[in-house]
Amino acid sequence: MIKSALIGCGGIAGAHVKALADLHERGVTEAPQVVAVCDIDEARAQERAAQLAAFGPVPRVYDDIEQLLATEDEVEAVDICALHSEHHTLAEAALASGRHVIIEKPLGITVRAARRIIDTAVATRRVLAVAENYRRSPMERAVNWAIRTGRIGQPRLLLWQDVGEGLGKWGWRNFRYHAGGGWVLDGGVHFTDLFRYHLGQPARSVYAVTRQFEPYRYDDPAERTGAWSVDVEDMSAATIEFEGGAVVQWTWSGSSPGERFNRRTLYGSEGCFDWETGLWSRDGSNLSRDDLLAEYRATLSVEEGERWFPGGTQNTIAIELVDFVRAVRIGTVPEVDGLEGLRAQAICMAIFESARAGQPMPVEAIESGHSEGYQDEIDQVLGIGGDETHGHDHDHH
Known about the structure:
It is a single chain. This protein folds into 2 domains: about 5-135 and about 310-335, Rossmann fold (3-Layer(aba) Sandwich); about 135-300, 2-Layer Sandwich (Dihydrodipicolinate Reductase, domain 2), CATH 3.30.360.10. It is an alpha/beta fold and about 400 residues long. Helices cover about 40% and strands about 25% of the residues. Strand 4 (about 75-80), helix 4 (about 85-95) and strand 5 form a beta-alpha-beta unit. The strands form 3 sheets. A 9-stranded mixed sheet has the order 16-15-14-13-7-12-11-8-17. It has a 6-stranded parallel sheet with strand order 3-2-1-4-5-6, with helices on both faces. A two-stranded antiparallel ribbon has the order 9-10. It is built from 15 helices and 17 strands. Helix 9 crosses helix 13 (about 340-355).
C-alpha cells in the first residue's frame, strides 16, 4: 500500500473512488490509500473525501496543489484526474516534489505538454503511469491473446466505426483549449492504445479529415434548446498505416442523425475477430466472445490471474491502480508508462495535424514534436514552451 493524493475530483475521479472501493472489498492490499484530495472546487473535494472515508481514513481536503504537496509529507504518489489543460502543470509540480504520478489519459493536452511531463519524470527518477484502462478488460486481454497465438494469422485490416449523433453538452470537453480536441482525443486515445496493443506495431503514418458540422451543443438536443457554441470536431475519418503492413480505418461521427453504424472488426490472414460476434476462422467457423474468453481464462495460472486481475476484479481502473502501486513498490515498469501514453496520443494528434495540413502525417514527426501546426495554437494559448528534449526516446518512464 502507498499513501496517495487524488488531484481533481470531477467525474472520472468518482470512477477511481469506485475502483478503490472494489479493491478494498476484495481485500487487495496493493492499492493506493488516499489520504488527501484536492480540487479548486472545495465542495467537490469534500464530496470525494466523504466517499473515500466509507472504506478508509478520512482524507484531508485541499483546494491548492502546492499547499498539498508542501504539507502532506506522507503522500508518496498522486492520481491526477483533472482537465487535460492542467495535466502538465499538476504532474510537473508533483514529480518535482518527489511524488510518483499516475495521470488520466491523454498524458498531455499536446505532445509538447506530454514531453514535458515525461522529461520531468526522467529527471526526478519517479514513476509515471498513464491511466489507460481499456486494454485491461478481460475481453481485450482475450482478444490480444488470440492475436498473439495466431488465431487470425497476420493482422491486416482493422475497421473501427462509430457513427451516430450526440449533440448534448459535455462541459469543458467541448472546448479545444481545455481538452485539446473533441472525441478523437478524449475517447479516441483509448482506441489508439488498443490499436497499438493488438497490432503489436508502431503506427507509421496517418491521413485524415475532420469536420465540425454542428457548431452548437444543447441542453435538449432533440429540441435544440439551451445552445452553446463549441470549437471541437464532430466527425473524423482516418486511415492509419502501421509497421508490418496493417491498416486501420477509423471513422467517428457525432453529427450523423438517423441510423447508427457501429462495427469493429480486425481481419487477419487466417480469419478475423469481430467485437460483437467473436472469432471467425477462414473456413467460416465461429467462436463466440464468451467461449473465447473462457479459453483465454483457462490458460492463466493462478499467478497470472492475480497479475492481470488482482483479487479477481474486472474493474479496469482498479487494475491500472494496482499496476501503478506495483511499479512504485517493486520497481516494475507500468504497463502504460509515459512513452506508451505519448505514442497512443500522437496518433490522435496526427489526425488533427493531417486534417489541418491536408496531407498524410508521419507519426514519428508528431511523437518528436516536429510537426505541430494544430497544436501550436494550443501551446501558445496555454504558454506551453518548447525545450531541447524533443525527439529523445527514453526507455522507461
